[in-house]
Amino acid sequence: MSESLLFLPGLLCDATLWRDQITALAPLVAIEVADLTRDDHLDDMARRVLATLPDRFAVCGLSMGGYVALALMRIAPERVTRLCLMDTSARPDTAEQALRRRRLIAASGGKTAAETRFRGVTPRLLPWLLHRDRLADAPLVEAVMGMAERVGREAFLRQQTAIMNRPDSRPWLPAIAVPTLVAAGRDDILTPPEHAAEMQALIPGARLHLIESCGHLAPMERPDEVSAMLKSWLVAGV
Q1: pTM value > 0.85
Q2: Which residues are within 8 A (CB) of 103 and not within 5 positions of it... i.e. 6 or more apart?
Q3: Which of 66, 131, 190, 234 is deepest in the core (most CB within 10 A)?
């Protein structure tokens, strides 16, 4: 294949989120991983990404990355060849979710590195991200926490601002006209499977794939299944 594939990481994630998929899919497609740390609005993230990519590309976004993928579909749908929305939602934040984000911001430490060491993802938050059976997987936990530390507090604040101000994308979903795969961990707490099913029902021809015994970070929790799923999506369309 000559197609390009863009991976869009989630909040406090970097290219490590997609490390296994990059290895598995590199023989098939040219891969880019977006830097979503520099802007505090989803549309600005999308426009920055568009400025660095080929004219046409496939896109796969997880969580916040899925919000950016939907922004891409609003801003430049003609450039996207196929779409994968993973562990994400088309809904805006509820009042409860926005309050939780503000509390996380308040608890994230001082304004400078000299004031505090930003951890981002603490053991207290891991049950929201990983399936309960993987909370004792030390290498996985270390990788998740390492991503958060690399992204850092200032980018975390920008990302949370962008997420809290995202629109309700559901009205735009019926206009999506590319092969679309919607995937989610069966046990995802943050963006539960009913959010995935809602998007699949609204996007014409979309396929739904639920990943068993999996939380919010499917590419790291179930790397082989996610890689196989994405390979099928790239080769067959959905």
Answers
A1: yes
A2: none
A3: 66
Helices 138-164 and 64-75 pack at an angle, to 10 degrees, of 40
3-state SS class at 5:
strand
What pLDDT does 113 receive? 46
Question: For the domain that residue 13 is a member of, what is the CATH number?
Answer: 3.40.50.1820
Is the distance from CB of 63 to CB of 10 less than 8 angstroms?
A: yes
Q: Which residues neighbour 97 within 8 Å (Cβ) at sequence distance 6 or greater?
A: none
Separation CA 110–CA 216 (nearest Å): 28
Q: In which domain, by residue range, is 1 found?
A: 1-238
Q: Who contacts 147 (Cβ-Cβ below 8 Å, separation ≥6)? A: 12, 13, 14, 16, 17, 121
Q: Length of the chain in residues, anyone?
A: 238
Among the listed residues 216, 175, 179, 174, the one whose alpha carbon sits nearest the alpha carbon of residue 84: 179
Q: What total of structural domains would you count in the chain?
A: 1
Task: Dihedral sign for Cα 146, 104, 168, 87, please.
Answer: positive
Helices in 76-132 by DSSP H: which ranges? 95-106, 126-129
Cα separation, 236 vs 230, in Å, equals 10
- Paired with 170 in beta bridges are none
